[in-house]
Amino acid sequence: MMTAIVCLTGCGKTQTTLEYDEAMIEQETEFLINYCQNVDSDTLAQWNDQNEFSKEYQFMMSGLKFTPDSFDGAVDSWQAGIKECGEYVGHGDYTFEAKDDELTVSVPAQFEDRDATIEFVFDKDLYLESMTVSAKFSLGEIMEKAGLNTLLGMGTVFVVLIFISFLISLFKYIPAIQNAFGKKKDEKKEETKAAVSETVEEVDETDDLELIAVISAAIAAAEETTTDGFVVRSIKRRPSNKWNS
Hints:
By secondary structure, the chain is of the alpha+beta class. It has helices at about 1-10, 20-40, 40-50, 50-60, 70-85, 140-170, 175-225, and strands spanning about 90, 95-100, 105-110, 115-120, 130-135.
């Protein structure tokens, strides 16, 4: 049994760490820090105007294991750190932490307004993946930021609740608005009905006049006289159209 355990232990996966050259890594990080510290806006604009192939060619010729994306990201992170911590003053000793597929290099740095930690991350081929500048805040500053974030969050919630309450309070005016629109529709319907009735009456009067003229002509023809001798005062319609026997 002991022999089997020893054999199985020997067949297990061996944990290895990434091998690297500290001097080479420090040279690359120092180059990056010095470049970010001394580059001006014109040089940076010229660099950004270059294409990916030109950037990669310059890295290859200089022997630096950078990629255009990681290098540009490092420059942006440095500029953000300058805005937050002030101008760069110097840095301390490097600390290396290697894993099987990654190398992390960190160094404490001093800036005019506050201290920070610069961290470099390299992949398993020792190409730069990222560089970050993390400002160091005191406990009071951390508590102040936490308090401001809490107030901002709670304030936003209360503002939204007040707005929702205001909207709910307006619901009581909805029936009145609906009634007002309903009255307008009823008035329009009544006006339409009145106009139709007037039109029907005018049509009926026109029909009656024509009917009177026809009856007058028929009577005059039957009496062999003219229509001047009599006047039709009114015409009453029978309730049924059937002839009485």
